[in-house]
Amino acid sequence: MKTTEAGGPRGFDAGKKIKGRKRYIITDTQGHLVGLRVHAADIQDRDGAVEVLTSIRALYPWLRHVFADGGYAGDKLRDAIATLGHWTIEIIKRSDAAKGFAVLMRRWVVERTFGWLGRCRRLAKDFEASIESAVAWVFIAHIRMLTRRLART
C-alpha cells in the first residue's frame, strides 16, 4: 500500500517510507486472517499491534502465544500485552550471521498473507476514503480467497 488515493485519514511513516495507511493483521499459523486494523501510517507499529491484539481478545480468549518480528520488540508492547491477559510474545529476529534471504519460522506467515491479499486489485493501492471501507475490502478479499480454496477441494 503506497498511497491513499481518495482522501481520508493518512500519515507518513519515515522508517518504512510509507505515505497513506498501514494494515496491521494477525493470522493463525496457516496464514488465515484473525484480526485486522487499518491506521494512518504515522502510528507506530507497537501501538498498532496493541490495538489489533485488543480487538481480537474477546473473540479468541484461548489465544496464549503471539509471534512477532523484530519491529515489535521492547517493553512497551510487552507491558501492553500483559495488561490484556496471560499472553506471551515471542520476537522472531533475523540472525546477525545470516547473509542474504533466509526464511524465518512463523514470521513469513504474515508476509505470505499480505502477498495473498495483494493479489486483489482493489487492495493494490488504498482507494478507499474511509478506514471502515478499507477494512471491509481486506475482509472481502480474504473471504474470496477462502471460498476459492474450498471450491478446489
Strand element count = 5
The CATH homologous superfamily is termed: Ribonuclease H-like superfamily/Ribonuclease H
| Global geometry | globular
- The CATH topology comes to Nucleotidyltransferase, domain 5
Helix/strand layout:
Blueprint: E1 11-13, E2 18-27, E3 33-40, H1 45-56, E4 65-69, H2 75-84, E5 88-92, H3 107-118, H4 131-152
Parallel strand pairs: 4-5
Antiparallel strand pairs: 1-2, 2-3
Helix pairs in contact: 1-2
Give an overview of the whole structure.
37% of the residues lie in helices and 20% in strands. The protein has a single domain (11-152), classed as 2-Layer Sandwich (Nucleotidyltransferase, domain 5). The strands form 2 sheets. A 3-stranded antiparallel sheet has the order 1-2-3, with helices on both faces. It has 153 residues and is α+β, with helices and mostly antiparallel strands.
In short:
This protein has 153 residues and is of the alpha+beta class. 37% of the residues lie in helices and 20% in strands.
Keywords:
two-stranded parallel ribbon, three-stranded antiparallel sheet, 4 helices, alpha+beta, 5 strands, Nucleotidyltransferase, domain 5, 153 residues
